[in-house]
From TrEMBL:
This is tRNA uridine(34) hydroxylase. Residues 123-221 form the Rhodanese domain. Belongs to the TrhO family. NCBIfam families: PRK00142.1-4. Catalyzes oxygen-dependent 5-hydroxyuridine (ho5U) modification at position 34 in tRNAs. The gene is trhO. The keyword tRNA processing applies. Its EC number is 1.14.-.-. The lineage of its organism: Bacteria, Pseudomonadati, Pseudomonadota, Alphaproteobacteria, Sphingomonadales. It comes from the Bacteria. Keywords: Oxidoreductase, tRNA processing. InterPro entries: Rhodanese-like_dom, Rhodanese-like_dom_sf, TrhO, TRHO_N.
């Protein structure tokens, strides 16, 4: 049996009528047995889909044919089984929610850094490295020395940066700021946001962690742990191979191999992170 092809894709593009794009996408995905989630907004398209190689190729070709989407950013991986239960195409205000008006990656964005050049940038002591992902994602894996904003959602990132700006940059100091995320889309907005805040030397990992894990050999890698992904694979490692984490059904947190050996881990009931909540002991 052929493996399932998984495609993580996004494109910032000015869609005049995103609602009109929804039905054709749903129909095409249904025809090819493609499942996953695609988000449509006035600023573009974002999502992850899975299916046969031919089915994914058909959907990707369709998205590339949409206005201003010829340069669609797509990262491919595989899964042994279908990682999604159904297909959803949703209309949203933003394809990645930051909640700050006027942030337009098409107008201003950070400098893209190729995965093979990333190690040199983040190893420079004059570079501040920021993981723009959420706390539960960072807990699964991150780059050595990266700052964890400990945010629960990307919407919290702007407020975090504004609170930490002086501590990060220092008065009159202009260090390089390098940021990264899973597939690159959050960094499109986070770098555009920092530039709108007057930070000029802003860089981000082209194609995100997924591109880095695919392109950089494990022997040369500065990545530690696995990369959380938003599907039933839970996490992947170097070479985009399936990782060791599972998802706790009740709380939705990823559980590593050690956590799965804990007596507090009961599949479908609780994990070490939520055991007290599940047992009613929280706050006791």
């Amino acid at each position: 049996m052929d493996p399932i092809t998984v495609a993580a894709l996004y494109q910032f593009a000015p869609f005049a009528d995103p609602a009109a794009l929804r039905a054709p996408l749903l129909q095409l995905c249904a025809e090819h047995g493609v499942k996953g989630t695609l988000l449509l907004a006035g600023e573009g398209v974002n999502g992850t889909i899975a299916g046969s190689a031919a089915g994914i190729a058909a959907v990707v070709a369709h998205v590339c044919s949409l206005p201003h989407c010829a340069g669609l950013d797509v990262k491919y991986s595989t899964a042994a089984t279908m990682p999604f239960a159904r297909m959803k195409v949703r209309l949203k205000r933003e394809i990645v929610t930051m909640g700050v008006d006027g942030i337009d990656p098409l107008a201003s964005v950070g400098t893209y850094i190729d995965p093979h050049d990333w190690n040199a940038l983040i190893s420079d002591p004059d570079t501040i490295v920021i993981d723009t992902r959420n706390d539960y994602e960072v807990a699964v894996g991150t780059f050595a020395g990266a700052i964890d904003p400990q945010t629960r959602s990307f919407r919290e990132f702007p407020a975090w940066f504004r609170r930490q700006r002086d501590a990060l940059l220092g008065e009159g100091r202009q260090p390089r700021v390098a940021m990264f995320c899973t597939g690159g889309i959050r960094c499109e907005k986070s770098t555009a946001f920092l530039k709108s805040e007057g930070v000029d030397a802003v860089y981000h990992l082209k194609g995100g962690i997924l591109n880095y894990l695919e392109q950089v050999p494990e022997t040369e890698s500065l990545w530690q742990g696995e990369c959380f992904v938003f599907d039933e694979r839970v996490a992947i490692g170097h070479g985009l191979k399936p990782g060791s984490h599972v998802l706790c059904g009740p709380c939705g947190r990823p559980v590593d191999a050690a956590g799965q050996q804990s007596p507090l881990y009961r599949p479908g009931v609780s994990c070490p992170a939520c055991h007290d909540e599940a047992s009613g002991d929280a706050g006791a």
